[in-house]
Amino acid sequence: MNTTIMLFLLQDGITNGAIYALLGLALVLVFAVTRVILIPQGEFVTFGALSYAMLATGQVPGTARLAVAMGVVAFGLDLYAARRSLRFKLVVRSVLLNIVLPVAILALTYALAGPKTPIAINIALSLLIVAAIGLFLYRIAFQPLAHTSVLVLLIASVGCHLALQGLGLVFFGAEGLRGPALSNAAFTVGPLRFTGQSIAVYGLTIAFIIALWLFFGFTLMGKALRATAVNRLGARLVGIRTTLSGQIAFLLASVIGAISGILIVPITTLYYDTGFLIGLKGFIAAIIGGLVSYPLTAVAALVVGSVEAFSSFYASNFKEVIVFTLILPVLVLRSLAAPAVEEEKD
Amino acid sequence: MTQRLPLIIFAIVMAVIPFIPGIPPFWIVLLDNIGLAALVAMGLVLLTGVGGLTSFGQAAFCGFGAYTTAVLTTAYGVSPWLTLPLSLLVSGIAAVLLGIVTVRLSGHYLPLGTIAWGIGLFYLFSKLEFLGRNDGISGIPPLSIGGFRMLDPGTIYFAIWFAVLISALLTMNLLDSRTGRAIRALRRGHIAGEAFGVQTPRAKLLVFIYAAVLAGLSGWLYAHFQRAANPTPFGAQAGIEYLFIAVVGGAGYVWGAVLGAGIVVILKEILQSYLPYIFGGQSQLETIVFGILLVVLLQLAPTGVWPWLMSRLPFKPARKIPDTSLELPARVRAPSTPSVLLHIDKARKQFGGVIAVNDVSFDVGAREIVALIGPNGAGKSTTFNLITGVLTSTGGAISVLGTKVDNAPPQEVVKLGVSRTFQHVKLVPDMTVLENVAIGAHLRGHAGAISSMFRLDRSDEARLLAEAARQIERVGLGDQIDQLAGSLSLGQQRIVEIARALCVDPLLLLLDEPAAGLRHMEKQRLAALLRQLRDGGMSVLLVEHDMGFVMDLADRIVVLDFGTKIAEGTPADIKTNPDVIKAYLGATT
């Protein structure tokens, strides 16, 4: 084995692993706060990436209209939920959040979209669109189910994945897209060439890990989010707005997903259904981290990325098989160490 | 026979359908697909709805069944009928391997693991040379009986629906049995079942294998129906769809699987033919509708369509009354009862820095009612959990009839004749009182899963139910025997737990707050029952907060405070003990 090849593979693995780490972090975040195992995380990735790629060609992506449609549904649900005590302030807030916000984003997108729009504005627009979708997804699909078991939430999560992936096909077509790189800077260290893109990947991943760690460990809001996860009723009794916690978690997750997508779409071509596989690899990392530990998830993601890189070199046909089989030894270990906890379900 | 009547009618209807003149052949194809999906969903009903284990990976097991027969029939010319057992075996073995890894894991790890292996196996199917990679295997021979070859959808229809009906029958038989009750108790957590000898991991593995074998059967039929196998129908998408079917139909009901399969397959067909007109010529649009429907359904009708339909029926299915004249053999008891039944010597339990039980020692003698009292958090329930093996002790020794039990699993402790009730009632709310109580007699029956499926367990089963009915009568709940346990008041549920514990035929009964939630008269009846049990030779150890009840009933009282034994004696001694008064009422200078 050639050292240069090994270094290349390792570099490739770490770049991919960093993306998986970002997604893994988002998954841990959402699970920790809402107990939702966020299968549609992959769709946030594709929506972010492909919206960005479409904006780069000067087109308005269908996701912007989806955000408006979801906002309208969310508004309807808000009204229905509050039908017995319909207060003016409440309606205004709901209109602002669910109607005005997505319509504003859509209008902004139409106003700014064009072949000469700067990259930074395209990125900002894609993030806004996906963030709105994430927010409304929680309101529509998960908030009414917030009291149910992890399994029901998981099945709902799979339903959301199906719907969003199908919509992805409608918006972006079956053809893959690629987006422009964030920066064309590059430098070489020995045999390795580092692009601005890969540096951005590393930098953002590390920044998110530190930020999440600080947020959950040291801020009141972070602690409130964790409290919601442990016991919703208890959290409500001490004055934490549990729906707000869920919204924040989904907002963060969708933004992280969209950022990951924007980071990789210049490196590889993404299709409407690529996100699912990428998201699942983040899952493998998250599962290795036990769905609780951020640092462990990040390390596991790097391992997943490296295994993927090496197996695509040595056994490219079985790359996916090998990556997804990684989960089995992990589950064996967890199963051997599994504490006998009593679970009261439904 | 009346219980079989709906099944027979259904079988006749299904048998007649292909002979209806003018029925479009396409409908028969749809019905074939419904049958194939129903088989997989039936496995999921048992796994998810009944057992509480979720799998998104059932399609992969179909793949095992389909590819096994595809390879063997095309490459080696084996007869399809010979590959049937092999297909089922391969799916089953795959389930054992994956199941051993995952069923011990709680909650969400299993579904996540199933998604991962569902995708992994899909890629494996599509990359392996001998499985034909992405193109799959074609030219699979049709099923044939003698010279009759099942070439078209109209003939294999009979094979498919025969398989569905037989599987439904076997599944319902299995659920209505000793093993079935153990499976149905899985969803509510493992502690209650294990306290009566249910080997929870084994029961979980059993349903997992069962579901996989049904999926394998569906795969085998599919391969001979399509006469080809390729990876697409065995991917993650299909796995998700099967779970969708089970949820739509009603994940807890065998017929829900058939109904759900019907709804989803027909809906999919309609969506596939009409959606392109609305959205233009895109494919896969039905997944959007499916996804949205799944979420809406979970929000509006999480139990599915079948129970909703059943609740609309004008008549209720009659339940059979157990024949209480049948006897179960009683526990073999030592000819002379030893004076000490339960001996606890310096039992200790630490949770991190907290000492919940601090070197507690006491005995329970034969024919004795001992009460364990103390303020909240004194370590009473923890002591119970140490005795019954739910918790492992940090130190000390516990023995029953001279046999050391410390850290034996609950299933072993109950074999020694120690049975218990729980402070927080652990019944299965959607099972009847009779079925719940019969779980207590789990170790006194012997019928396994296979004999239950083929109804060879009936004499064993009748004796178990008779015993359960007798114990229910004994605790005075005879009128509620057919009610769902969840519909009883909390006090009555506690009494059901006592009946369940009595089904063990115990030497020592551990009761955790049995009188909580009972009215005065009910408490007196309970006290009378416990005295009667003692006079019959049983010993009782109970935790209780109702002092009047305890002082009246107990022969001896042990008092715990902050995990330490502070007093032991007759009720009269305890009433005047200054330490006890201090523990309950605070310091009195």
Question: What would your notes on this structure say?
Answer:
- In chain A, helix 1 packs parallel to helix 7, helix 1 packs antiparallel against helix 10 and helix 7 packs across helix 8.
- Chain A is globular, with a radius of gyration of 20 Å.
- Chain A has a two-stranded antiparallel sheet with strand order 1-2.
- The longest helix of chain A has 32 residues.
- Chain A contains 14 helices and 2 strands.
- With 346 residues, chain A is mainly α.
- Chain A starts with a helix and ends in a 9-residue tail after the last helix.
- Helices cover 74% and strands 2% of the residues of chain A.
- In chain A, a hairpin with a 2-residue loop joins strand 1 and strand 2.
- Chain B is α/β, with parallel strands linked by helices.
- Helices cover 54% and strands 12% of the residues of chain B.
- The termini of chain B are far apart.
- At the A-B interface, helix 6, helix 11, helix 13 and helix 14 of A face helix 4, helix 5, helix 10 and helix 12 of B.
Largest interface: A-B, 53 and 51 residues
Structural Rg of chain B:
28 Å
Described by the principal axes of the CA atoms, the overall outline of chain A is globular
Largest sheet of chain B: 6 strands, mixed
